[in-house]
Each structure stands twice: as C-alpha cells, then as structure tokens.
Amino acid sequence: MLKALLVKDYALIESINIEFGKGLNIITGETGAGKSILIDAMGLLLGERASTEVIRKGASKSYVEGIFDITNNKKIDALLEENEIEPLPELILRREISTKGSNRCFINDTPVSLSVIKNVGNLMVDLHGQHEHQSLLRNETHIDFLDEFGNYRDLADEYKKLYSELQNLLKELKILKEKETSLREKRDFYSFQIKEIDSVSPAENEEERLVEELRILENSEKLASTTSSVYGLIYEDENSVYDSIIKIKNELDELNEIDKSFGESFSECENAIALINDIAEFVRNYKSKIDVDPAEVNKKRDRLGTLNLIKKKYGGTVKAVLEYRNKIGAEFDLAENFSERISSFEKQIGGLRELCGKAADNISKKRSQVSVLINKEVKGVLADLGIPDSNFDVRITQNKSSSGEDYIIVKGNKYSYSSKGIDEIEFYISTNVGEDMKPLAKVASGGEVSRIMLALKTILAKNDRFPLLIFDEIDTGVSGRIAQKVGKALKSLANFYQVISITHLPQIAGLADHHFIVEKKTNDGRVVSSIKQLNEKERIREVAKLMSGENVTEASLEGARELINSK
User: Fold this and answer.
1) CA–CA distance from 84 to each of 104, 108, 111, 112 (Å)?
2) Which of 370, 373, 378 minimizes the C-alpha distance to 444?
3) Close Cβ partners of 517 (under 8 Å, ≥ 6 residues apart)
4) Cβ atoms within 10 A of the Cβ of 402, count?
5) Are 249 and 262 within 8 A, CB to CB?
6) In this predicted model, what pLDDT tens digit does every residue of 454-498 receive, in sequence order?
7) Residue among 447, 506, 450 nearest 478 (CA)
8) Helix (H, G, I), strand (E, B) or coil at 242
9) pLDDT tens across 44-100, in order?
10) What is the pLDDT of residue 483?
11) d(Cα 315, Cα 310) in Å, to the nearest integer?
12) Using CA atoms in the order 308, 314, 315, 320, what is the torsion angle rounded to 10 degrees?
C-alpha cells in the first residue's frame, strides 16, 4: 500500500506530504483546486511520460516521491533482486524532472531506468484516470480487459515471442524479394570484382610483412659490411672482445687462487664468454645468409604495387578490400542461389505460421473460458450498482484470412492475426428487460459506462493483481441512489485493497476511512494547491458542502452525519 506521497514544485503544487491509510481514501475539493494534478503526479511516479511543462514556475525541477509498504510482495522482491536494488523495509520510488530536460528515476535511492520504475508500478498500482472509462467505448481495448482478468500470461508471452519471430522473418523475406532484381543486375559486375580481387589474393598483414622484407633487402650491403665489422670486433680483430675477455678470465682465475672471493666474478666472466660466443655465432650465420637478389627485390616491389592498386580501388586498406570481398561474395552467392534462399525462408515461415496458430488457439480457448466468468460476474456487480436487469456478453470472433501472405494457420485454416492473437473482442450489453444485446459503445450512457468500468475493475481486483487501486472520478455521470451504490462498491473493494478515489459526490465521500481535501489558495500573488486530512468535524462540514454548496445548513450537516454514520 501507499503510505506517503511527497510532491514538490509540480504544476500548482508547491510542496505537499500526504500520509494515506488502509481502506478507502477519499479526496475532494472544488473544481480546479488541483485534485487531478495529484493523480497526474502519481502517474508520473509510476512511469508516465514526463514534460518540463509540469515544473512549477520559478523552480529548477519537480520532485515526486512515494513510500510503499511491500510486505510479502514476492513479485516486487524478485524485481528488486533482478535489478540489483537493495531491499529496504519500505519501497521508495522517486522521480525528478529538471528544466534542463533531465529525467531521473530512483528506487530505494538507486538510480534506475524509466522502464524499471514502470515495471514496479505495474505490479503495485492500478491507476484509473479521470476519463479512462471512455476507453470502454473503443472496442479495441476490450481484449486488454479480458486478458487482464485471465490467468494465461505464459501463453500470451509464448505467442508474442513466436509472433515477433514470424514478423522478423516476413520482413527479411520481403527485403530479400525486393533485392532480387537489383542483385541479378549486379551479379556480372560482382563476378568481375570478385575475380579481380581473387587474382591478387591479398592476405591480412601481408603488406606490413613485405615492407619489412624490402627494408632488409634494400639495406643488404650495409647489413653485410656492418655484420663483418661486428664479427671482427668480437672475434677476429687484434685485441678483439673475445681475446680481451679471455685475458681477463685468466687473471681472475689467478686472483681466485689467492682469494676465493673472486670466484663469483670468475664465474660471471665465463658466462660473458659464452654470451660473446653466442653473439659472434649469430652475426656470422646472419652474414653468411645475406644474398642480394635484385630479382627478389623487384618481385616484392611489384607485389606491393599490385596491393596498392587494389587498395585504391576497393577501400584504401587490405582489410577493407577483404571485407568488401566478403560482402560482394555473399551478395553474389545470394544472387546465384536466390531460389534456394527464398525456399528456405518460406519453409521457416510456414513452420512459424503453424506454431503461431497453435499458440493463438490456446489463448482463444482460455479467453472463451474467462469470458463466461466475466459475463456472470459483471452482471452480478452491475445489479449491485443499480442496473439489475442487465445482460453482459464478451463476444469473441475470428476472421479467416483472404490475404496472400499475412496469416497464421489454425487447424489447417488461414486466419487473420495481430500481436494479441486471432481473436477480436467486443463487449455487448443490454441494460433493460427485453432489449437485444448491442455493442457497448452504442447503448451505454455516461453513468452506465462508469458503472461498467467499476464492475470490471471490481472483478479484476479480485484477481489480486494490485494492492492499490486509484480512481479519478469513477463516479462521472452518476448521482443520488446510484452514487451510494457506487460508493458501497468502492467501500467493498477497500475491505481487501487500499483504494484512493477522487469524488465530488457526498454519498461516496461519506464512506471514507480517510478523507482529504485539496484547496487552492493565493500566496504572494501566486496560486498554490494544498491538501490536508480532515478530522471528524471537518469531514462532516465537507460532506455537507458537497450536498448543499457553500451555504452549509444545519439540515445539510445532519444529512452529512447520517451519510458518514451509514458506513
């Protein structure tokens, strides 16, 4: 449940800190006071899109924070663990919007992405906006209501995965077919380029190796004279290094006979002689292999020239040439084997059409089962809400496909489909005895739509998906006796869930477990919205104002007491 909501510098709100309680939390206030702004701030906290326009004039950023009790909420615990967020006794969500355009989200003071905030919100709160009940008048939303009620998320996820794979393959096949003419036109050109590159057969790192070899060949005379000089200095010349160190070794040997402390130096001198011999041997061998071959020099120079020409033509480097060769090679192979590639794609797509069809059919069966329960439960709740003679029907239809390519296969037949399966869902209703069932959008009044929405929310809530339900004026279009029934339905929900509801009806406000009022005042020439929780005396007066307006009479006060005590 939501324990506290902190909002700072958001629209008309300068700074508020509200502590909500269990059960039914009611928010009232005059039109324009800022009630819905509060719900908008809550929506922002739960991942709705942000705009710098909501930042209060003169402030550098808006700030919304919610503190939630998540005791025994295993789904939230798993989500926190998945995102490496430290669990705390309470869950703290925070959203900041800066005038600079930055948008920061935090969970338990850990920075997170907006999608993570949204995922958390989806597990905790069902926020029903002020005009959301109008979505019932769009039949494309009905499938979402049905799926929310059904317990077949795994089936839906499996279908969506297959649907995505099928769409990707269809897209690739389309691109492939669009390339066919172009590839066939380029095939001869690619063939020429492939032959030209392959005739050179450049190898990776070949250019660097040739440059190194040429440098050695072109300096062979210097290498020969210098190695001769080095070998002479080490071994053959008078007073060579070798002769000198042999003399030093002999004298160290004499010293060691007298004083054994020279033993280590004598050993190191022997090591030096071995090292000198190794160097002399390497230089002698190297000198003997020097063979200046002008033909070999010219051959390597010609090869470098050939590589430079192919580089200029196909990318500037040997690596780029090789990459281009691989690319046009794949394109050439595709052009040569186009029919086989098309056939391979179509075979994969055919298999996925079957798998998608099977998954969609499984969802359809579940939807049929769920629709029977919804029909029964909505009818029962509507009776409690003052529509006793209603009939409600979730109608599920499918359309066989006439499209040449866009279809999936269900039990051997081609069906039209979408990301949600093969079903089209539409709610039908009759609200009076003897009336035919008709599409909901064509027969329901505004007040009836609100009650139908409340009925759906009531049965959806029984699925235990959300610990917190928020309603922004769910009572739109109802009054009098029906308003009281709507209030009792909200009160009934609040026995199992925390409910926060904005209302303008005294019949609903009187049932509150906790009553808050939003007020708009002018401070220093600026409008500010504030909220406070009412005590018992203040509650009676506020409910009386909802009944009779600003002129509160003793009769309206007595009526307010009766409403409050009736719960």
Assistant:
1) 18, 11, 11, 10
2) 378
3) 27, 28, 29, 531, 532, 534, 538, 542
4) 9
5) no
6) 888 778 766 655 688 888 877 776 777 788 888 888 888 888 889
7) 447
8) helix
9) 888 888 888 889 988 999 999 999 998 888 888 889 999 999 888 899 999 999 988
10) 83
11) 8
12) -90
Q: List pLDDT tens digits, range 445-464.
A: 666 777 777 888 778 766 65
Beta strands in 359-463 (DSSP E): 391-398, 408-410, 413-415, 423-430, 438-439
* Measured distance CA(34)–CA(351) in Å, rounded: 56
3-state secondary structure of 371: helix
**What whole-number distance in Å separates Cα of residue 466 and Cα of residue 449?**
22
C-alpha closest to that of 370 among 125, 155, 159: 155
- Kindly tell me if the per-residue pLDDT of 130 is higher than 70: no
Q: Which amino acid is at 119?
A: N
User: Cα(first)–Cα(last) distance of the chain, in Å?
Assistant: 22
d(CA 266, CA 246): 11
* Mean pLDDT score, 382-387: 84
Distance CA 484, CA 511 (A): 9
- Helix, strand or coil, per DSSP, at residue 439: strand
Q: Are 422 and 413 in contact (CB under 8 A)?
A: no
Confidence of residue 564 (pLDDT cuts 50, 70, 90): confident
Nearest to 529 by CA among 538, 517, 540: 517
- The CA distances from residue 294 to 104, 207, 220, 430, 560, in Å, are 71, 20, 11, 102, 114
Distance of CA 484 to the CA centre of its chain: 43
Q: CA angle, corner 167, sides to 162 and 170, nearest 5?
A: 125
Q: Map out the domains of the chain with their CATH numbers.
A: 1-130+473-532 (3.40.50.300), 206-323 (no CATH), 534-567 (no CATH)
Report the length, in residues, of the chain.
567
pLDDT band at 131 (very low <50, low <70, confident <90, very high): low
Tell me how far apart the alpha carbons of residues 45 and 477 are, in angstroms, rounded to a whole number. Answer: 29
Number of Cβ atoms within 10 Å of the Cβ of 551? 8
Output 220 or 112, whichever has higher pLDDT: 112
The Cβ of residue 178 has, within 10 Å, a number of other Cβ atoms equal to: 10
Whole-number Å distance between alpha carbons of 282 and 381: 100
pLDDT at 289 over 70: yes
Cα 480 from chain centroid? 46
Beta strands in 306-448 (DSSP E): 391-398, 408-410, 413-415, 423-430, 438-439
pLDDT at 316: 87
Distance CA 195, CA 193 (A): 5
Q: How buried is residue 427: exposed, middle or buried, by Cβ count under 10 Å (0-12/13-18/19+)?
A: buried
